[in-house]
Amino acid sequence: MVTEIRTEKQEVPESLLTCQPSPVPPEGDSQRQVAYFIIDLYEAGEDCRAKLGAVRKVVREEQD
């Protein structure tokens, strides 16, 4: 019996290597502008956290 062990490098898709950019802070100081800025900032962070989670999954699968 011959056993062959091969390892294959998992490629992380390019789309997971960049995050949505942080929004530009509002120039005005109205509550509406600040609220939209906070929402956009949260969405950018969530985009990055989701992509990091996907990269983590690919990397962990490679280690197993």
Protein topology:
Layout: H1 31-63
* β-sheet strand percentage: under 5%
Shape: rod-shaped
Give the beta-strand count. Answer: 0
Radius of gyration (CA) equals 20 Å
Overall pLDDT level: 89
Q: Helicity level, as a percent range?
A: 40-55%
Order of helices and strands: H
Cα(first) to Cα(last) distance is: 24 Å
Helix tally equals 1
Low-confidence stretches: none
Q: Tell me about the largest β-sheet.
A: none
Alpha-beta content class: mainly alpha
Q: Can you tell me about this structure?
A:
This protein has 64 residues and is mainly α. It has a domain at 28-63. It contains 1 helix and no strands. It has one helix at residues 31-63. The mean pLDDT is 89.
Task: Please name the defining characteristics of this protein.
single chain, 64 residues, mainly alpha, 52% helix
